[in-house]
Every structure is written in C-alpha cells, then in structure tokens.
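Hey,

The postdoc asked me to send both predictions to you directly instead of through the lab channel. I've kept everything plain text so nothing gets mangled by the mail client. Protein one:
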Amino acid sequence: MKVPFKSLAVPLCALLTGAAFGQSPAATTISKTPGAFTFSYDAQHDQVIPNGVQIKPSAIGAVSFAPTTGTLSVTINIKTVSHFKKGTSYHCSLTAIGGELDITNDVVSGGIETASGLAHSTGANTLSCTLTIPYEWTLVADPAAARGAILAFGVAAVSPDGGAVERSTLQVDGVEPLPPSGSTSTFTFGVTL
C-alpha cells in the first residue's frame, strides 16, 4: 500500500515542532570582556564616553523592584614622566557602567554614571585624583547577564595657556563584581603621562 506524501506532512510537521520546542537552550557563558562596549575620551571636556551600550528600561508593568545602591570610589595615581609646562593642570574623568550586564547583546539593566575632577600633587612628579560615584539602580534580572561594573577612566594634562590638552590617556578596567547593596567598592589605578 502506498501512502501519499501529503498525508504524512501534517504528522511530520507536528513531530518536528514538538522536538524543537522540547529542546532546552544552551548554557550562557559570560566572558570577562565587554562585547561591543567601547569608550572614547574627550579630554578637552573631561568626559569618558561609552559607545555601543543600550540601557534596558527598568520597570516592567506594575512590578516593582528594590533598587541596588552603593558607592564606587576610584583613586587614580598619576606619574608624570613627560615634560609639561609649569602650571599644567591634570584632569581625571570616570565612567562606570553597572548593573545586569548582558555583554553578548550589549544591553545593561542598571546605569551609566560619570564623575570628573582635578588631580592634586602628592610629591615629586606624582599626583592623585579620587572620584566617587554614588549610585542607585533598579536591576531587572536577566538570565543572559551577570552583575558587575565596567570602569573606564581618562587623565589629561591641560596646558595653562589656552587650555590645550598636552597629553591624555584612556584606560578601561574589566568587569568588576557588583558588591552587595549599600556597600562601597574602592579601586586604585595607576597611569603614567
């Protein structure tokens, strides 16, 4: 007896659809390197600018989430090796991207925070700048994300005559763990100009 192909098509499609929906997704691995997150440094305006980052809305319907709070305290120690004009000022800028970081899809449930300031002399050819960022983020759980913070900081030597940037550096730290709500995380970095 010959069975026509058309009569097998419907049961075959149902079987394949059930098999596709019955599979579980592969485990998601979060690497320590941000995907397409990039940063640029506008030293003239004391801004570290994040690029390629999408912020996910924090509120879903009428469901409310308790905010995560804390403080990021970043000290940048600067060693001046280059010759700069007398009266040169040293500017520091910090951008922190934190919360639920989905670096595969470049989406953040949390926030982007910035701070800037001036470095102060701590001795011969050394300066220090401490930037503090208090934050309050509503974090919506994301199975493809990991909690953490990415810190990007820039330092610039700015000429006393006309404010031209004589030299600058931009550095990006890896993904740091996000501490428990209400706590302070302290970081220290060194740069050479």
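Protein two:
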Amino acid sequence: MELIFIIGLVIAIYSFIVWFKQKKVPNNTVIAFTGGLGSGKTYLGVKYAIKHHKKMNLLYKLRIIKNKPLFYSNIPIRYKRKKWSKILEYDHLTLKSRIP
C-alpha cells in the first residue's frame, strides 16, 4: 500500500514539474512547424490557431480589445460547430486587397 502511494506521489511530482517547466509560445512571433510527411504539422498549426482565436474572442468579450477578431486561413478550418474560417486569398498576401 505504501509503495503504491510513493509511486503515485513520484508520478504526480514529476507531472507537475514537467507541466510548469513548459515554455509558452509568445504572441507576435513566427511559428514554423517542420518535419516529414504525416508528422502533424498542419494539426499543430490548426491547434495553435484555434487556441489563439479563442483567447482573442475572450479578450473581445471582456472588452479588453476593441475589434472583433477574424480568423483567416488558406485551408478551411471549422473552429466551432457551424463557424468556419474565412478564406485567405492571394490578393490579401500581395496586399492588393485589405483584410478588414
């Protein structure tokens, strides 16, 4: 019984150390996901984009930021049940048309 408690305690302490030592991805940085085929680059990119969009929506609802955040992507991303990302077009990238 004591051995199970000690093993559980060691696993819990290790988990807390790993959790709190992780570095956060700072805002306003360029993030590049590299790797071979099927390594999860798109998955991680979508995951970070949705997480950031949810955070910005919360700040908008708390009225910390004034403009409603928009979600543009070159691939279709469903971030809520019936909400999809807006299409990022070539004209946006070449600055021929503006993103509102």
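Summary for protein two, as requested: The two ends are 62 Å apart (CA to CA).

Thanks,
C.
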